[in-house]
Amino acid sequence: MKKNLTVHTLLAVGVAVCTAVTVSAGIAGMPSGSNLSSLMSPAAVGDTVAADSSSAGTAAKTSVDPLAETNHNIVDEVIWVVGDEPILLSDVEATKLQGTYQGQNFGDNADCTIPEQIAVQKLFLHQAALDSLEVSESEITQGVDQQINYWIQAAGGSKERLEQYRKESITQMRQELRDEFKNSQLVQKMRQKLVEDITVSPAEVRSYFRNLPADSIPTIPTTVEVEIITQTPKATPEEIARVKDQLREYTDRVNKGEISFSTLASLYSEDTGSARQGGEIGYTGRGMLDPAFAAVAFNLTDPKKVSKIVESEFGYHIIQLIDRRGDRINVRHILLKPKIEAPAVEKAENRLDSIANDIRSGKFSFEDAAMYLSDDKDTKNNNGLMANSTQSERTSRFRMQDLPAEVAKVVDTLSVGEVSRPFQMVNDHGKLVCLIAKLKSRVDSHKATITEDFQEMRNIVLAKRREEVLHEWVVNKIKDTYVRMLPEYRDCKFEYEGWVK
User: Fold this and answer.
1) What's the CA angle centered on 253, arms 250 and 256, to 5 degrees?
2) How far is CA 209 from CA 212, 218, 238, 332, in A?
């Protein structure tokens, strides 16, 4: 995506959004950079770029700290070029600030380490583009919604307070986060693709740990198994009717030629990621879309017509076809979400409180209640047990930091077998849900043993093997990539060889 030649600092979007890309391979959410091949030759490294004050202000506000207030009015500089993508001095300074806030220690070599980490992300993003990897609009919307909700909680639960401190609207925050989240997810998917076929045998695991010194045997962190029962507060029929009537009005205005679909999407769609593109989601495969949305979108044939109203996991949509290329489709849509009123939330919590009391009194088990009473499609058929899907496996065990923040906060106060009081969280579809949780099991932190912790040990060896493969891939990618840097960076001690050519 092309951007103006101004300071455009993109910071990591935070642990609530992207946790899978490790620092050893680069920082998730680093900028993809601007495609400046038509504006700047490689010889332009070191050229001074005047920073737009409003752009710099936006850069400062993209920190994970939701209440951060920083004003930058600086002159920026291109310090590296990787391929035809620049790395700006402001990128490095912003990353350093972000890392400091998150407690990350770059050591004494930060001015060398950080540009290298940003450059590595550019390599992954370039390969992701070559391999046509995609992040769906629904994934982007979910991730951005989760981050915004995380910030709102950090601001005391007040949207107004968050907007006051950051001096921008929630809509502006969403727009800033969209590209950052998309890039971080593309990097993650590219890394996963590169190592998806890597395996280790039991013999390799035993051999690796047999040769480890006693003081190098890893500590297994505390893990838990958690069961949940959810109730989703429902919008009133009147509110749903209002949303549908609004969408019918939009359809009527488009059909009469009063206004374009894209203009209405820009003004009113609650999918803020696509709204700024006039509702356009880009060429997307069926599997990347919500099934209900895809079923209607892929049946559209006339770009002049507007679809019927579609209900998805995210809300209600109308859709307009733009183009079709083979098994990929490009459409515009307008999303409206019915508002959930306080009585509906109170009703859901009261229902869960009653269920929890019946479980405690022995009328039925938590597992039976989850199967028959829970709204959560992902857990109800598994007795309410939450699943932790990682790059290498699907397990029921979670480290506390891998649980949703709201769940972890509650579970941390429970004893094994205890059922919580009702609480709220925003799910992966950006919807408010009410739930109760049960701590099924807890294994406290301990030194690993080959008999009791074989799976965890296998994961450690597998992660080591995958990092070796990724390291080798980066080194080989550098060999085939144009790299130019300011002279003061040529004496740096880099993790990957081959940057200096």
Assistant:
1) 150
2) 5, 10, 63, 54
| 245: nearest Cα among 321, 336, 331 | 336
Contact status, residue 124 vs residue 28, Cβ threshold 8 Å: no
Enumerate residues 6+ apart whose C-beta is below 8 A from 244: 309, 316
- Please answer whether residues 312 and 320 qualify as being in contact, where contact means their C-beta atoms are separated by less than 8 angstroms: no
SS3 20: coil
Report yes or no: 78 and 46 within 8 Å, Cβ to Cβ: yes
Model pLDDT for residues 418-465, shown as the tens digit of each residue: 999 999 998 877 788 999 999 999 999 999 998 888 988 998 899 999
Report CA Rg, the chain. Answer: 25
- Within 196-232, where are the H helices? 202-210
Report the distance separating Cα 133 and Cα 135, nearest Å: 7
- Chain position carrying tokens 């992660």: 463
Please spell the DSSP secondary structure of 256-295, one letter per residue.
TTSS-HHHHHHHH-S-HHHHTTTTB--SEEGGGS-HHHHH
**Range list of β-strands (E), 348-489:** 388-389, 394-395, 398-399, 423-426, 432-443, 446-447, 483-485
Q: List, for residues 203-262, the tens digit of each pLDDT value.
A: 999 999 999 998 899 998 999 999 999 999 999 999 999 999 999 999 999 999 999 999
The dihedral built from the CA positions of residue 49, 55, 56 and 60, taken in this order, carries a sign that is negative
DSSP 402: G
Burial 39-75 (b: 16+ CB within 10 A, else e): ebeeeebeeebebbeebbbbbbbbbbbbebeeebeee
Q: Say which residues have a Cβ less than 8 Å from residue 359's Cβ, sequence separation at least 6.
A: 365, 366, 369, 419
pTM of the entire predicted model: 0.55
